[in-house]
Amino acid sequence: MNMVEKILARKSGQKSVAPGDVVLADIDLMCMHDLSANFVMKVFEHEMEGASIADPNKLAFAFDHNFAPATREAAEALAAVRRFAKKHKVKNVFDSGCGSLHHVIMEAGLVTPGMIVVGCDSHSPIYGAIGAFGTGIGNNSMAALGFTQNKGWFKVPETIKIHFHGTPMKSVMPRDISQYLVGKLGEDGAIYKALEYAGPYIESLEVNDRALFPLQAIDVGGKCGFVNPDEKTVRYVQRLFASKPSVPEFEMLANDADCRYAEIVDIDVSRIEPQVACPPTVGNVKPIDAAVGTPINVAEAGGSTGGRLSDIRALARCLANRRIHPDVRLQVVPASRDIYLAALKEGLFETLHMAGANIFPPSAGSNQAFNMGALAEDEVMISTQARNFPGRNGHPKARHFLASPLTVAASALTGKITDPRTLEVQ
Amino acid sequence: MSTNWVFQGRCWKFGDNIPTDALAPTHVMFKTPQEMAASVLETVNPEFPKKVRPGDILVAGRNFGCSSGRALATKALAATKIGAVVAEQFSRTFYRNCLEIGLPLMEARGVHALVNDGDEVRVDIKAATLENLTTGKSIQGTPPSPFLLKMLEAGGLIPLLKSGKFAAGDFAGAARR
Question: At what angle do helices A309-319 and A348-355 cross, to 10 degrees?
Fold first, then answer.
Protein backbone atom coordinates (compact mmCIF):
# COMPACT_ATOMS: atom_id res chain seq x y z
CA MET A 1 0.00 0.00 0.00
CA ASN A 2 1.06 3.60 -0.39
CA MET A 3 0.68 6.37 2.19
CA VAL A 4 -2.89 7.28 1.24
CA GLU A 5 -4.04 3.65 1.17
CA LYS A 6 -2.42 3.02 4.56
CA ILE A 7 -4.15 6.01 6.12
CA LEU A 8 -7.54 5.06 4.64
CA ALA A 9 -7.09 1.44 5.82
CA ARG A 10 -6.01 2.47 9.31
CA LYS A 11 -8.85 4.97 9.71
CA SER A 12 -11.50 2.54 8.45
CA GLY A 13 -10.32 -0.26 10.73
CA GLN A 14 -9.04 -2.56 8.02
CA LYS A 15 -5.78 -4.36 7.37
CA SER A 16 -5.69 -3.25 3.77
CA VAL A 17 -7.61 -1.39 1.10
CA ALA A 18 -7.24 -1.29 -2.67
CA PRO A 19 -8.09 1.32 -5.33
CA GLY A 20 -11.84 1.26 -6.04
CA ASP A 21 -12.86 0.26 -2.51
CA VAL A 22 -15.35 2.55 -0.82
CA VAL A 23 -14.53 3.01 2.85
CA LEU A 24 -16.18 4.72 5.79
CA ALA A 25 -13.28 6.32 7.62
CA ASP A 26 -12.72 8.32 10.81
CA ILE A 27 -11.98 11.97 10.18
CA ASP A 28 -9.47 13.76 12.40
CA LEU A 29 -10.17 17.34 11.36
CA MET A 30 -12.85 19.17 9.39
CA CYS A 31 -11.81 22.63 8.29
CA MET A 32 -13.95 25.22 6.61
CA HIS A 33 -13.61 28.80 5.53
CA ASP A 34 -16.25 31.41 6.31
CA LEU A 35 -18.38 30.62 3.25
CA SER A 36 -18.29 26.83 3.46
CA ALA A 37 -18.78 26.91 7.25
CA ASN A 38 -21.94 28.94 6.64
CA PHE A 39 -23.26 26.56 3.97
CA VAL A 40 -22.49 23.42 6.01
CA MET A 41 -24.00 24.95 9.12
CA LYS A 42 -27.22 25.61 7.21
CA VAL A 43 -27.39 22.00 5.99
CA PHE A 44 -26.77 20.80 9.56
CA GLU A 45 -29.47 23.05 11.01
CA HIS A 46 -32.11 22.58 8.31
CA GLU A 47 -31.63 19.01 7.18
CA MET A 48 -30.23 17.21 10.23
CA GLU A 49 -32.90 18.14 12.77
CA GLY A 50 -32.00 17.15 16.34
CA ALA A 51 -28.48 15.97 15.49
CA SER A 52 -25.54 16.98 17.62
CA ILE A 53 -21.89 17.51 16.87
CA ALA A 54 -19.87 14.45 17.80
CA ASP A 55 -16.65 16.27 18.69
CA PRO A 56 -16.45 20.06 18.34
CA ASN A 57 -12.64 19.85 18.70
CA LYS A 58 -12.49 18.17 15.31
CA LEU A 59 -13.98 21.27 13.67
CA ALA A 60 -12.01 24.35 12.64
CA PHE A 61 -13.27 27.50 10.95
CA ALA A 62 -11.01 30.16 9.44
CA PHE A 63 -12.68 33.23 7.96
CA ASP A 64 -10.57 33.94 4.92
CA HIS A 65 -12.94 35.27 2.27
CA ASN A 66 -13.77 38.34 4.37
CA PHE A 67 -10.87 40.12 6.06
CA ALA A 68 -13.69 42.50 6.97
CA PRO A 69 -17.17 41.98 5.53
CA ALA A 70 -18.02 44.62 2.93
CA THR A 71 -21.74 43.88 2.71
CA ARG A 72 -24.52 43.29 5.21
CA GLU A 73 -25.10 39.87 3.61
CA ALA A 74 -21.49 38.85 4.32
CA ALA A 75 -21.63 40.28 7.85
CA GLU A 76 -24.74 38.20 8.57
CA ALA A 77 -23.08 35.07 7.21
CA LEU A 78 -20.04 35.53 9.47
CA ALA A 79 -22.19 36.36 12.49
CA ALA A 80 -24.19 33.17 11.93
CA VAL A 81 -21.02 31.07 11.92
CA ARG A 82 -19.80 32.73 15.12
CA ARG A 83 -23.15 32.01 16.82
CA PHE A 84 -23.04 28.41 15.58
CA ALA A 85 -19.49 27.98 16.91
CA LYS A 86 -20.46 29.34 20.35
CA LYS A 87 -23.59 27.21 20.54
CA HIS A 88 -21.77 24.01 19.62
CA LYS A 89 -18.55 24.79 21.54
CA VAL A 90 -16.30 24.90 18.49
CA LYS A 91 -13.07 26.41 19.85
CA ASN A 92 -10.99 26.49 16.70
CA VAL A 93 -12.41 29.64 15.19
CA PHE A 94 -9.97 31.93 13.40
CA ASP A 95 -11.82 35.13 12.64
CA SER A 96 -11.47 37.65 9.82
CA GLY A 97 -7.88 38.74 9.24
CA CYS A 98 -6.46 35.34 10.21
CA GLY A 99 -5.18 34.50 6.74
CA SER A 100 -5.92 31.84 4.15
CA LEU A 101 -7.78 28.78 5.53
CA HIS A 102 -5.33 25.93 5.02
CA HIS A 103 -2.23 27.97 5.83
CA VAL A 104 -3.88 29.03 9.09
CA ILE A 105 -4.83 25.44 9.96
CA MET A 106 -1.32 24.16 9.17
CA GLU A 107 0.39 26.85 11.23
CA ALA A 108 -1.99 26.33 14.15
CA GLY A 109 -0.62 22.80 14.52
CA LEU A 110 -4.02 21.18 14.07
CA VAL A 111 -2.73 18.63 11.57
CA THR A 112 -0.04 16.00 12.08
CA PRO A 113 1.10 13.16 9.79
CA GLY A 114 -1.24 10.19 9.44
CA MET A 115 -4.45 12.18 9.89
CA ILE A 116 -7.50 12.41 7.64
CA VAL A 117 -8.39 16.06 7.10
CA VAL A 118 -11.32 17.24 5.01
CA GLY A 119 -12.59 20.59 3.87
CA CYS A 120 -15.44 21.72 1.65
CA ASP A 121 -13.09 23.39 -0.77
CA SER A 122 -10.85 22.02 -3.46
CA HIS A 123 -7.56 22.99 -1.80
CA SER A 124 -7.93 20.61 1.14
CA PRO A 125 -5.35 18.21 -0.38
CA ILE A 126 -2.61 20.54 0.97
CA TYR A 127 -2.23 18.32 4.05
CA GLY A 128 -0.61 15.68 1.86
CA ALA A 129 2.49 17.87 2.17
CA ILE A 130 2.89 16.77 5.81
CA GLY A 131 2.01 13.11 5.45
CA ALA A 132 -1.74 13.42 6.05
CA PHE A 133 -4.64 12.53 3.74
CA GLY A 134 -6.50 15.67 2.78
CA THR A 135 -9.37 16.02 0.34
CA GLY A 136 -12.45 18.08 -0.38
CA ILE A 137 -15.94 16.78 0.34
CA GLY A 138 -19.42 18.28 -0.05
CA ASN A 139 -21.51 20.26 2.38
CA ASN A 140 -23.90 17.36 2.87
CA SER A 141 -21.11 14.88 3.68
CA MET A 142 -19.62 17.35 6.10
CA ALA A 143 -22.87 18.15 7.91
CA ALA A 144 -24.48 14.71 7.88
CA LEU A 145 -21.57 12.30 8.40
CA GLY A 146 -18.69 14.52 9.47
CA PHE A 147 -20.33 16.71 12.09
CA THR A 148 -22.46 13.94 13.59
CA GLN A 149 -20.12 10.92 13.43
CA ASN A 150 -16.61 12.21 12.60
CA LYS A 151 -16.81 10.04 9.53
CA GLY A 152 -16.68 10.32 5.78
CA TRP A 153 -17.10 8.01 2.80
CA PHE A 154 -14.15 7.78 0.45
CA LYS A 155 -13.36 5.79 -2.64
CA VAL A 156 -9.74 4.66 -2.53
CA PRO A 157 -8.01 6.35 -5.49
CA GLU A 158 -5.45 4.97 -7.88
CA THR A 159 -2.12 6.78 -7.68
CA ILE A 160 0.03 8.55 -10.24
CA LYS A 161 3.63 9.06 -9.17
CA ILE A 162 5.47 12.13 -10.39
CA HIS A 163 9.23 11.79 -10.14
CA PHE A 164 10.97 15.17 -10.21
CA HIS A 165 14.71 15.48 -10.63
CA GLY A 166 17.24 18.12 -11.64
CA THR A 167 17.93 21.64 -10.39
CA PRO A 168 15.68 24.51 -11.53
CA MET A 169 17.22 27.37 -13.51
CA LYS A 170 17.63 30.81 -11.93
CA SER A 171 14.38 32.64 -11.16
CA VAL A 172 12.30 29.48 -11.65
CA MET A 173 10.27 28.88 -8.49
CA PRO A 174 8.37 25.88 -7.09
CA ARG A 175 5.15 27.49 -8.42
CA ASP A 176 6.57 27.28 -11.94
CA ILE A 177 7.26 23.58 -11.46
CA SER A 178 3.86 22.77 -9.91
CA GLN A 179 2.13 24.77 -12.63
CA TYR A 180 4.16 23.07 -15.35
CA LEU A 181 2.87 19.74 -14.04
CA VAL A 182 -0.73 20.96 -14.42
CA GLY A 183 -0.06 21.82 -18.05
CA LYS A 184 1.70 18.53 -18.69
CA LEU A 185 -0.99 16.28 -17.17
CA GLY A 186 -3.90 18.46 -18.33
CA GLU A 187 -6.93 19.65 -16.41
CA ASP A 188 -8.55 16.23 -16.46
CA GLY A 189 -5.27 14.30 -16.41
CA ALA A 190 -5.69 12.86 -12.93
CA ILE A 191 -9.43 12.90 -12.26
CA TYR A 192 -10.18 10.90 -9.17
CA LYS A 193 -6.56 9.90 -8.71
CA ALA A 194 -4.02 10.49 -5.96
CA LEU A 195 -0.80 12.20 -6.98
CA GLU A 196 2.44 11.28 -5.28
CA TYR A 197 5.22 13.84 -5.62
CA ALA A 198 8.66 12.30 -5.26
CA GLY A 199 12.26 12.43 -6.40
CA PRO A 200 15.34 14.48 -5.47
CA TYR A 201 13.75 17.83 -6.33
CA ILE A 202 10.77 17.27 -4.01
CA GLU A 203 13.07 15.91 -1.30
CA SER A 204 15.11 19.12 -1.53
CA LEU A 205 12.08 21.34 -0.84
CA GLU A 206 10.88 22.34 2.61
CA VAL A 207 7.28 21.51 3.57
CA ASN A 208 6.06 25.03 2.72
CA ASP A 209 7.16 24.67 -0.88
CA ARG A 210 6.10 21.04 -1.15
CA ALA A 211 2.61 22.23 -0.21
CA LEU A 212 2.17 23.95 -3.60
CA PHE A 213 2.03 20.55 -5.29
CA PRO A 214 -0.95 18.99 -3.45
CA LEU A 215 -2.58 22.44 -3.50
CA GLN A 216 -2.60 22.17 -7.29
CA ALA A 217 -3.69 18.49 -7.36
CA ILE A 218 -7.23 19.70 -8.03
CA ASP A 219 -6.08 21.55 -11.12
CA VAL A 220 -5.50 18.21 -12.82
CA GLY A 221 -8.68 16.79 -11.27
CA GLY A 222 -6.86 14.90 -8.50
CA LYS A 223 -8.55 13.72 -5.33
CA CYS A 224 -5.47 14.27 -3.22
CA GLY A 225 -1.73 14.73 -3.46
CA PHE A 226 1.04 13.72 -1.11
CA VAL A 227 4.74 13.58 -0.39
CA ASN A 228 6.01 10.63 1.62
CA PRO A 229 6.83 12.03 5.07
CA ASP A 230 10.57 12.32 5.83
CA GLU A 231 12.93 14.08 8.24
CA LYS A 232 11.86 17.47 6.84
CA THR A 233 8.25 16.62 7.71
CA VAL A 234 9.31 15.77 11.27
CA ARG A 235 11.29 19.00 11.62
CA TYR A 236 8.33 21.00 10.30
CA VAL A 237 5.95 19.44 12.82
CA GLN A 238 8.44 19.92 15.66
CA ARG A 239 8.79 23.61 14.76
CA LEU A 240 5.00 24.00 14.82
CA PHE A 241 4.99 22.87 18.43
CA ALA A 242 8.22 24.63 19.45
CA SER A 243 6.35 27.08 21.72
CA LYS A 244 4.00 24.44 23.15
CA PRO A 245 4.69 22.09 26.08
CA SER A 246 5.01 19.00 23.87
CA VAL A 247 4.64 17.62 20.38
CA PRO A 248 1.57 15.37 20.10
CA GLU A 249 2.19 11.76 19.14
CA PHE A 250 1.83 11.04 15.47
CA GLU A 251 2.51 8.20 13.13
CA MET A 252 4.42 8.52 9.89
CA LEU A 253 2.83 6.20 7.37
CA ALA A 254 4.96 5.91 4.25
CA ASN A 255 4.79 3.86 1.07
CA ASP A 256 5.67 0.19 1.04
CA ALA A 257 8.48 -0.59 -1.37
CA ASP A 258 6.18 -2.58 -3.65
CA CYS A 259 3.24 -0.18 -3.97
CA ARG A 260 1.59 0.04 -7.37
CA TYR A 261 0.95 3.01 -9.62
CA ALA A 262 -1.52 3.72 -12.38
CA GLU A 263 1.24 5.71 -14.05
CA ILE A 264 4.72 7.08 -13.34
CA VAL A 265 5.68 10.44 -14.86
CA ASP A 266 9.28 11.64 -14.99
CA ILE A 267 10.02 15.37 -14.95
CA ASP A 268 13.41 17.05 -15.34
CA VAL A 269 12.91 20.39 -13.60
CA SER A 270 16.13 21.86 -15.02
CA ARG A 271 14.40 22.25 -18.38
CA ILE A 272 11.36 24.11 -17.06
CA GLU A 273 11.06 27.84 -17.79
CA PRO A 274 8.81 30.21 -15.83
CA GLN A 275 5.22 29.07 -16.47
CA VAL A 276 2.02 31.07 -16.79
CA ALA A 277 -1.53 29.71 -16.62
CA CYS A 278 -3.28 31.83 -19.21
CA PRO A 279 -7.00 32.51 -19.24
CA PRO A 280 -9.54 31.02 -19.44
CA THR A 281 -8.53 27.95 -17.38
CA VAL A 282 -5.93 26.74 -14.88
CA GLY A 283 -4.76 24.08 -17.32
CA ASN A 284 -3.89 26.53 -20.08
CA VAL A 285 -0.28 26.59 -18.89
CA LYS A 286 2.43 27.89 -21.21
CA PRO A 287 6.08 28.85 -21.00
CA ILE A 288 6.17 32.55 -20.18
CA ASP A 289 7.14 33.60 -23.72
CA ALA A 290 3.53 32.98 -24.78
CA ALA A 291 2.33 35.80 -22.49
CA VAL A 292 5.30 38.18 -22.32
CA GLY A 293 4.33 41.76 -23.18
CA THR A 294 0.65 41.51 -22.18
CA PRO A 295 -0.20 44.79 -20.39
CA ILE A 296 -1.50 44.29 -16.84
CA ASN A 297 -3.61 46.36 -14.46
CA VAL A 298 -3.37 44.38 -11.24
CA ALA A 299 -0.64 42.19 -9.78
CA GLU A 300 -1.17 40.18 -6.62
CA ALA A 301 0.88 38.00 -4.33
CA GLY A 302 -1.68 36.14 -2.28
CA GLY A 303 -4.31 33.40 -2.20
CA SER A 304 -4.34 29.68 -1.38
CA THR A 305 -1.24 29.19 -3.52
CA GLY A 306 0.47 32.45 -2.57
CA GLY A 307 1.08 34.90 0.25
CA ARG A 308 3.65 32.67 1.93
CA LEU A 309 6.69 34.26 3.56
CA SER A 310 8.93 32.93 0.77
CA ASP A 311 6.63 34.59 -1.80
CA ILE A 312 6.76 37.96 -0.04
CA ARG A 313 10.54 37.69 0.26
CA ALA A 314 10.81 36.98 -3.47
CA LEU A 315 8.67 40.03 -4.21
CA ALA A 316 10.84 42.23 -2.00
CA ARG A 317 14.05 40.89 -3.59
CA CYS A 318 12.73 41.85 -6.99
CA LEU A 319 11.28 45.24 -6.04
CA ALA A 320 13.87 46.58 -3.55
CA ASN A 321 14.81 50.17 -4.45
CA ARG A 322 12.55 50.06 -7.48
CA ARG A 323 9.13 51.48 -8.26
CA ILE A 324 6.28 49.55 -9.86
CA HIS A 325 4.76 50.74 -13.14
CA PRO A 326 2.31 53.64 -12.62
CA ASP A 327 -0.53 51.79 -14.37
CA VAL A 328 -0.30 48.78 -12.03
CA ARG A 329 -1.90 48.19 -8.63
CA LEU A 330 0.23 45.69 -6.71
CA GLN A 331 -1.54 43.84 -3.89
CA VAL A 332 0.33 41.87 -1.25
CA VAL A 333 -1.80 39.55 0.88
CA PRO A 334 0.00 37.50 3.55
CA ALA A 335 -1.44 34.00 4.06
CA SER A 336 -1.45 34.23 7.87
CA ARG A 337 -0.89 36.58 10.78
CA ASP A 338 2.39 34.81 11.57
CA ILE A 339 3.58 35.51 8.03
CA TYR A 340 2.39 39.10 8.36
CA LEU A 341 4.41 39.54 11.54
CA ALA A 342 7.52 37.89 10.09
CA ALA A 343 7.34 40.06 6.96
CA LEU A 344 6.89 43.13 9.15
CA LYS A 345 9.93 42.28 11.28
CA GLU A 346 12.08 41.56 8.24
CA GLY A 347 11.25 44.97 6.78
CA LEU A 348 9.68 43.42 3.68
CA PHE A 349 6.55 45.56 3.95
CA GLU A 350 8.60 48.77 4.02
CA THR A 351 10.47 47.67 0.89
CA LEU A 352 7.24 46.78 -0.88
CA HIS A 353 5.40 49.87 0.33
CA MET A 354 8.19 52.08 -1.01
CA ALA A 355 7.96 50.22 -4.31
CA GLY A 356 4.31 51.20 -4.53
CA ALA A 357 2.59 48.04 -3.29
CA ASN A 358 -0.49 47.97 -1.09
CA ILE A 359 -0.35 45.57 1.85
CA PHE A 360 -3.67 43.87 2.64
CA PRO A 361 -4.77 42.01 5.78
CA PRO A 362 -4.08 38.25 5.92
CA SER A 363 -6.89 36.55 3.97
CA ALA A 364 -7.70 34.73 0.74
CA GLY A 365 -7.05 38.05 -1.02
CA SER A 366 -8.71 38.41 -4.40
CA ASN A 367 -9.97 34.82 -4.51
CA GLN A 368 -13.47 35.04 -6.04
CA ALA A 369 -13.26 38.82 -5.62
CA PHE A 370 -15.02 38.41 -2.29
CA ASN A 371 -12.89 40.72 -0.16
CA MET A 372 -11.26 42.59 -2.96
CA GLY A 373 -9.84 42.13 -6.41
CA ALA A 374 -12.80 42.59 -8.78
CA LEU A 375 -11.75 43.48 -12.32
CA ALA A 376 -13.52 45.70 -14.82
CA GLU A 377 -14.26 44.59 -18.37
CA ASP A 378 -11.01 43.85 -20.25
CA GLU A 379 -8.79 44.48 -17.21
CA VAL A 380 -5.90 42.06 -16.72
CA MET A 381 -4.54 40.59 -13.49
CA ILE A 382 -1.46 38.48 -12.89
CA SER A 383 -1.30 36.74 -9.54
CA THR A 384 -0.17 33.80 -7.44
CA GLN A 385 -3.84 32.94 -6.86
CA ALA A 386 -5.13 29.47 -7.70
CA ARG A 387 -7.91 30.20 -10.19
CA ASN A 388 -8.34 32.19 -13.39
CA PHE A 389 -11.77 31.11 -14.65
CA PRO A 390 -13.84 33.80 -16.41
CA GLY A 391 -16.03 35.80 -14.07
CA ARG A 392 -14.26 34.59 -10.93
CA ASN A 393 -12.71 38.02 -10.51
CA GLY A 394 -15.36 40.43 -11.66
CA HIS A 395 -16.22 40.88 -15.32
CA PRO A 396 -16.31 37.66 -17.39
CA LYS A 397 -14.23 39.45 -20.03
CA ALA A 398 -11.49 40.37 -17.56
CA ARG A 399 -8.41 38.16 -17.93
CA HIS A 400 -6.40 36.55 -15.14
CA PHE A 401 -2.92 34.99 -15.51
CA LEU A 402 -1.44 32.79 -12.77
CA ALA A 403 2.28 32.79 -12.16
CA SER A 404 5.11 32.62 -9.63
CA PRO A 405 5.75 35.48 -7.18
CA LEU A 406 8.86 36.52 -9.12
CA THR A 407 6.92 36.71 -12.38
CA VAL A 408 4.21 38.72 -10.61
CA ALA A 409 6.82 41.13 -9.22
CA ALA A 410 8.67 41.49 -12.54
CA SER A 411 5.37 42.18 -14.32
CA ALA A 412 4.32 44.77 -11.72
CA LEU A 413 7.60 46.53 -12.33
CA THR A 414 7.27 46.82 -16.10
CA GLY A 415 3.47 47.02 -16.41
CA LYS A 416 3.37 44.01 -18.70
CA ILE A 417 3.92 40.30 -18.25
CA THR A 418 7.66 39.90 -17.87
CA ASP A 419 10.06 36.99 -17.67
CA PRO A 420 11.76 37.35 -14.27
CA ARG A 421 14.96 35.94 -15.77
CA THR A 422 15.36 39.21 -17.66
CA LEU A 423 15.57 41.27 -14.46
CA GLU A 424 18.35 41.64 -11.95
CA VAL A 425 17.08 40.21 -8.68
CA GLN A 426 18.92 40.90 -5.41
CA MET B 1 -38.55 12.04 -10.35
CA SER B 2 -38.64 9.05 -12.63
CA THR B 3 -38.96 5.83 -10.66
CA ASN B 4 -37.29 3.62 -13.23
CA TRP B 5 -34.28 5.97 -13.51
CA VAL B 6 -34.96 6.73 -17.14
CA PHE B 7 -35.06 10.42 -18.08
CA GLN B 8 -36.16 11.86 -21.38
CA GLY B 9 -35.90 15.50 -22.39
CA ARG B 10 -34.42 18.20 -24.51
CA CYS B 11 -30.63 18.38 -24.63
CA TRP B 12 -28.53 21.36 -23.59
CA LYS B 13 -24.95 20.92 -24.76
CA PHE B 14 -21.92 22.41 -22.98
CA GLY B 15 -18.17 22.15 -23.59
CA ASP B 16 -15.08 21.06 -21.62
CA ASN B 17 -13.82 22.39 -18.28
CA ILE B 18 -16.98 24.24 -17.23
CA PRO B 19 -16.10 25.49 -13.72
CA THR B 20 -18.36 25.65 -10.68
CA ASP B 21 -17.80 29.43 -10.94
CA ALA B 22 -20.15 29.34 -13.95
CA LEU B 23 -22.69 27.12 -12.18
CA ALA B 24 -22.91 29.10 -8.94
CA PRO B 25 -21.26 32.50 -9.41
CA THR B 26 -20.06 34.27 -6.27
CA HIS B 27 -22.83 36.88 -6.47
CA VAL B 28 -25.60 34.32 -5.94
CA MET B 29 -24.00 32.37 -3.09
CA PHE B 30 -26.32 33.63 -0.41
CA LYS B 31 -29.44 33.70 -2.58
CA THR B 32 -32.33 31.23 -2.60
CA PRO B 33 -32.10 28.12 -4.83
CA GLN B 34 -34.56 29.74 -7.25
CA GLU B 35 -32.41 32.87 -7.50
CA MET B 36 -29.31 30.71 -8.03
CA ALA B 37 -31.13 28.82 -10.78
CA ALA B 38 -31.73 32.13 -12.56
CA SER B 39 -27.96 32.63 -12.97
CA VAL B 40 -26.74 29.08 -13.48
CA LEU B 41 -24.37 28.83 -16.47
CA GLU B 42 -25.46 32.28 -17.70
CA THR B 43 -21.89 33.30 -18.56
CA VAL B 44 -21.52 30.21 -20.78
CA ASN B 45 -24.97 30.21 -22.39
CA PRO B 46 -27.26 33.12 -21.38
CA GLU B 47 -30.28 31.26 -22.82
CA PHE B 48 -29.86 28.30 -20.48
CA PRO B 49 -31.17 29.76 -17.21
CA LYS B 50 -33.96 31.55 -19.07
CA LYS B 51 -35.22 28.62 -21.11
CA VAL B 52 -34.26 25.42 -19.29
CA ARG B 53 -37.37 23.35 -18.51
CA PRO B 54 -37.91 20.71 -15.84
CA GLY B 55 -36.76 17.35 -17.18
CA ASP B 56 -34.27 18.75 -19.72
CA ILE B 57 -30.94 16.91 -19.98
CA LEU B 58 -27.56 18.63 -19.77
CA VAL B 59 -24.73 17.05 -21.75
CA ALA B 60 -21.20 18.35 -21.21
CA GLY B 61 -17.65 17.56 -22.28
CA ARG B 62 -14.66 16.72 -20.12
CA ASN B 63 -14.07 17.81 -16.52
CA PHE B 64 -17.53 19.29 -15.95
CA GLY B 65 -17.80 21.10 -12.61
CA CYS B 66 -14.09 21.77 -12.11
CA SER B 67 -12.60 24.63 -10.05
CA SER B 68 -13.95 25.25 -6.53
CA GLY B 69 -15.45 22.28 -4.72
CA ARG B 70 -18.46 24.44 -3.92
CA ALA B 71 -21.38 22.11 -3.30
CA LEU B 72 -23.74 24.97 -4.12
CA ALA B 73 -22.95 24.42 -7.80
CA THR B 74 -24.87 21.14 -7.87
CA LYS B 75 -27.66 22.62 -5.77
CA ALA B 76 -28.00 25.56 -8.18
CA LEU B 77 -28.21 23.18 -11.12
CA ALA B 78 -30.73 20.94 -9.33
CA ALA B 79 -32.85 24.03 -8.66
CA THR B 80 -33.52 24.31 -12.41
CA LYS B 81 -35.28 20.91 -12.03
CA ILE B 82 -33.09 19.50 -14.76
CA GLY B 83 -33.68 15.77 -15.27
CA ALA B 84 -30.15 14.44 -15.49
CA VAL B 85 -26.57 15.56 -16.12
CA VAL B 86 -24.35 13.63 -18.52
CA ALA B 87 -20.70 14.33 -19.30
CA GLU B 88 -17.63 12.79 -20.85
CA GLN B 89 -16.20 13.03 -17.35
CA PHE B 90 -17.01 15.02 -14.22
CA SER B 91 -14.67 16.64 -11.75
CA ARG B 92 -14.64 14.47 -8.65
CA THR B 93 -16.10 17.05 -6.28
CA PHE B 94 -18.97 17.76 -8.67
CA TYR B 95 -19.62 14.02 -9.14
CA ARG B 96 -19.63 13.41 -5.42
CA ASN B 97 -21.81 16.42 -4.68
CA CYS B 98 -24.37 15.45 -7.33
CA LEU B 99 -24.78 11.99 -5.83
CA GLU B 100 -25.04 13.44 -2.34
CA ILE B 101 -28.00 15.59 -3.33
CA GLY B 102 -29.59 12.87 -5.48
CA LEU B 103 -29.16 14.63 -8.85
CA PRO B 104 -28.99 11.84 -11.47
CA LEU B 105 -25.76 11.86 -13.46
CA MET B 106 -23.87 9.65 -15.84
CA GLU B 107 -20.41 9.54 -17.40
CA ALA B 108 -20.11 8.38 -21.01
CA ARG B 109 -17.01 8.75 -23.16
CA GLY B 110 -17.98 9.99 -26.62
CA VAL B 111 -21.32 11.44 -25.55
CA HIS B 112 -20.39 15.01 -26.44
CA ALA B 113 -20.10 14.27 -30.16
CA LEU B 114 -23.34 12.32 -30.10
CA VAL B 115 -25.70 15.19 -29.31
CA ASN B 116 -26.63 18.67 -30.43
CA ASP B 117 -28.43 21.43 -28.58
CA GLY B 118 -32.15 20.79 -28.73
CA ASP B 119 -31.98 17.07 -29.55
CA GLU B 120 -34.44 14.84 -27.72
CA VAL B 121 -32.42 12.41 -25.60
CA ARG B 122 -33.22 9.55 -23.25
CA VAL B 123 -30.88 8.64 -20.38
CA ASP B 124 -31.08 5.38 -18.45
CA ILE B 125 -29.02 5.87 -15.29
CA LYS B 126 -29.01 2.23 -14.14
CA ALA B 127 -28.11 0.82 -17.54
CA ALA B 128 -25.82 3.82 -18.16
CA THR B 129 -27.04 4.46 -21.68
CA LEU B 130 -27.92 7.62 -23.57
CA GLU B 131 -30.09 7.44 -26.66
CA ASN B 132 -30.36 10.39 -29.04
CA LEU B 133 -33.98 10.10 -30.21
CA THR B 134 -33.45 12.84 -32.79
CA THR B 135 -30.62 11.03 -34.58
CA GLY B 136 -31.25 7.46 -33.49
CA LYS B 137 -27.69 7.07 -32.17
CA SER B 138 -26.91 5.75 -28.72
CA ILE B 139 -23.94 5.31 -26.41
CA GLN B 140 -22.95 3.16 -23.42
CA GLY B 141 -21.61 4.98 -20.35
CA THR B 142 -20.17 3.86 -17.02
CA PRO B 143 -22.75 2.50 -14.56
CA PRO B 144 -22.56 3.81 -10.98
CA SER B 145 -21.17 1.46 -8.31
CA PRO B 146 -23.78 -0.19 -6.06
CA PHE B 147 -23.15 2.16 -3.13
CA LEU B 148 -23.40 5.26 -5.28
CA LEU B 149 -26.59 4.01 -6.96
CA LYS B 150 -28.06 3.29 -3.55
CA MET B 151 -27.34 6.87 -2.50
CA LEU B 152 -28.86 8.22 -5.70
CA GLU B 153 -31.97 6.06 -5.31
CA ALA B 154 -32.44 7.26 -1.74
CA GLY B 155 -32.43 10.84 -3.02
CA GLY B 156 -28.99 11.67 -1.66
CA LEU B 157 -26.74 11.10 1.34
CA ILE B 158 -28.99 12.66 3.97
CA PRO B 159 -32.16 10.75 2.96
CA LEU B 160 -30.01 7.58 2.82
CA LEU B 161 -28.77 8.17 6.37
CA LYS B 162 -32.28 8.88 7.62
CA SER B 163 -33.67 5.76 5.92
CA GLY B 164 -31.44 3.59 8.11
CA LYS B 165 -30.21 1.78 5.00
CA PHE B 166 -26.71 3.25 5.26
CA ALA B 167 -24.98 0.05 6.34
CA ALA B 168 -21.49 -1.16 7.11
CA GLY B 169 -21.96 -3.67 4.31
CA ASP B 170 -21.78 -0.81 1.84
CA PHE B 171 -18.12 -0.40 2.53
CA ALA B 172 -14.71 -1.88 1.84
CA GLY B 173 -14.70 -5.55 0.89
CA ALA B 174 -18.44 -5.55 0.30
CA ALA B 175 -18.17 -2.68 -2.15
CA ARG B 176 -15.09 -3.99 -3.90
CA ARG B 177 -15.89 -4.42 -7.54
Answer: 50
